[in-house]
């Protein structure tokens, strides 16, 4: 049985990432890439679906965790009645290998340790063939199945029985044991052992140097640094693609069907991530992502997808995995994402904002980068008034979502500014006209005069938390009465214990059964909107509360179940962390 979501922490090497539980068990890991099939999938099932445990065998009196300062190296300290042991979990970066390194150090007394290495490939479905071999002068345990080979190294290797490789041993004060699991393609030889100290030190230095550039002049500066590092871990180093989260099917509704795969690069989430990184002064990531975008989107602009695989691939069919019981019984477990084929008219607006910020940060347009933007805006000009699935990727009937139209306005607006302010070439008059037409339409059809609020779509008086973006993208000033009315309506209609729902699911707009919890990014948008409205005290108080919802190591999932004080949805989620950074910048 998996732990509460907030009891996990993330480690990663910017190729993939793992969730380490407070109990010392790695319950989620896909190797070698974020969207590869998991080899440890206990998160969505049981230990029989794969996990790697290193923890005290006896009762643990207390557990504390922290990331080593300025890094994503995780330290878990277990105290038992006989002593204390520290577990360091690291995925070394920048070495073109896929390894997880786990180091146990006994810091007091003596502690009996339990080791359980259970590899299952194909998301917990396949038991690999496991054997002991000698390689490079040492004994190793090797698990092979299909395309994958996993190599366990360590000073004391566990023994096989019943599909597990297990062991128990005592550590005394001063003892230090380091284990590693390395992935290679099954047809390759067992790779050379790595220099653990050297790789741990190099990873520490790289991550510290990166996070040292995080802004100090913002509220909750330490949390902002953690959020930025978390976004970095979700950025695929080799390709520049940014995943929405490293997990699939952590439920939005415990026991329900709202379980989705986030291990892909959404143009929306990635563009917003970039906006946060640029806002925090991380400029060079913009170049990498723009290169990713140019490759992924290359071709006919009419074929634009709203999400891609991390390497820019277009195929991510949604499948169900019936062999997995799901987190807290939430089924189906899904891989791939059917929203890939949806029409979401907001996406280009988000991309145009990120690219505009990159331009302002000094990233000059190349012939290709501007031609691409121009082609995409021209394509939007043909379809901007069509209904869509909106940014929440609803699976009910398409609508004329006000937020989607807002972002259409943004796409034309940023296109116009690129021509007017940066001297780029394009159909200025046409885009200006369209921008003005969309604006008039939004003010006419997306605003409910009686309620004094913008509405979720053109045929409703319901609101949507995404409307909080109206002042944030510059459509209206933050203190415009229509914005103030919208903030009040959103707060009144979507409040759940002081946090914000995305929209009211009971209207049936999303076409799904069940309910969901407050969506954390929306509450951070409220912070930014309140700040823009001049309501800084309220904004600051909400920011304090939201930062207090992070888990013990500063991570946030997609949603928060305030009734039970637990996290819900995929974890950690870029959307929540990027919105946290943006809110902190808004309060700067
Ligand atoms: O709520 C239904 C939809 O939920 C997912 O979408 C959400 O996550 C995306 C990635 O972070 C985000 O871009 C989107 O705005 C969110 O609504 C899921 O991916 C969809 O398939 C699903 O319909």
UniProtKB/TrEMBL annotation:
Pfam families: Glyco_hydro_15 (PF00723), TREH_N (PF19291). Its EC number is 3.2.1.28. Belongs to the glycosyl hydrolase 15 family. This is Trehalase. It is an enzyme of class 3 (hydrolase). The keyword Magnesium does not apply. GO terms for molecular function: alpha,alpha-trehalase activity. Pathway: Glycan degradation; trehalose degradation; D-glucose from alpha,alpha-trehalose: step 1/1. Residues 2-134 form the Trehalase-like N-terminal domain. It comes from Nocardioides cavernae. It catalyses: alpha,alpha-trehalose + H2O = alpha-D-glucose + beta-D-glucose. The keyword Amino-acid biosynthesis does not apply. Its cofactor is phosphate. Residues 220-584 form the GH15-like domain. Keywords: Carbohydrate metabolism, Glycosidase, Hydrolase.
